[in-house]
TrEMBL record:
This is L-rhamnose 1-dehydrogenase (NAD(P)(+)). It catalyses: L-rhamnofuranose + NADP(+) = L-rhamnono-1,4-lactone + NADPH + H(+); L-rhamnofuranose + NAD(+) = L-rhamnono-1,4-lactone + NADH + H(+). SMART domains: PKS_KR. Residues 7-194 form the Ketoreductase domain. SUPFAM superfamilies: NAD(P)-binding Rossmann-fold domains. One of its GO terms (molecular function) is oxidoreductase activity, acting on the CH-OH group of donors, NAD or NADP as acceptor. Pfam families: adh_short_C2.
């Protein structure tokens, strides 16, 4: 069953990690896909190639989500290529680990501008297009388990992910009358480029695995099912919700 047959899906941060997995997963479920990416040209091209190999159309649009102009351009390019926007997956994010007391101002500002401001502008631009189309739509934002728990070296990151979670709750209220559903997924520890250096320490990785009831850390592909479900008509009465995808880590920490 292809849950996104005939849909157009836009994914930010789509060249690597969770965004790439979501983009290819959406294509497997019948969607045409536009990805936004910041710097990885080769990875963006290979993602587009994988989608096209599945028989779906794809484009890659380069741009920094921290720049408000990027959101409008990305949505416009998606409409130009595919005629409409049915689903936005707001995924782009960074997490440069750093101690709290000497956290550089530039690191704090950049993290907020990418993770929270970037999500806000992308969600707003996509919503405007969906309202103009007049047929509803879906927005899925990638928050984090970090929206619910703290992190010693993530004092700049956890507030942004809590903000993304809150943004989806408020947007669900603001956009419900337009038939637009807004939900978030909250990944646990997923093996991506964001944390590959942090988890290069075998002892730390083993410790993180030991805190997860399912006994392993997540892979980007573990987010595909939850994102596709929330984007599909199977979730047509789900909005303002947050879905933990963490192997049980959050409940274990309680």
């Amino acid at each position: 069953m292809k849950l996104l047959e005939g849909k157009t899906v836009l994914v930010t941060g789509g060249s690597t990690g969770i965004g790439r997995a979501a983009a290819i997963g959406a294509a497997r479920h019948g969607a045409d896909v536009a990805i936004n990416y910041a710097s990885s040209d080769n990875k963006a091209r290979s993602c587009v190639a994988e989608i096209e190999a599945l028989g779906q159309r794809a484009i890659a649009v380069k741009g920094d989500v921290a720049d408000p102009a990027t959101s409008g351009e990305f949505i416009a390019r998606g409409v130009e290529a595919f005629g409409r926007v049915d689903v936005l997956v707001s995924n782009a994010g960074i997490c440069p680990f750093h101690a709290f007391l000497d956290m550089p101002v530039e690191t704090v500002d950049r993290t907020f501008r990418v993770n929270l401001h970037g999500a806000y502008y992308m969600v707003q631009a996509a919503a405007r297009q969906m309202v103009e189309q007049g047929e509803g739509g879906v927005i899925v934002a990638v928050s984090s388990i970090s929206a619910l728990v703290g992190g010693e070296f993530q004092t700049h990151y956890t507030p942004t992910k809590a903000g993304v979670h809150s943004l989806m709750q408020s947007a669900a209220i603001a956009l419900g009358k337009h038939g637009i559903r807004c939900n978030s997924v909250l990944p646990g520890t997923i093996l991506t480029e964001i944390n590959k250096d942090d988890l290069a320490d075998d002892a730390k990785r083993a410790y993180m695995e030991s805190r997860t009831p399912l006994g392993r850390l997540g892979q980007p592909e573990d987010l595909v099912g939850p994102i596709v479900f929330l984007a599909s008509d199977m979730a047509e009465y789900v909005t303002g919700a947050a879905l933990l995808v963490d192997g049980g880590m959050f409940v274990n920490l309680q």
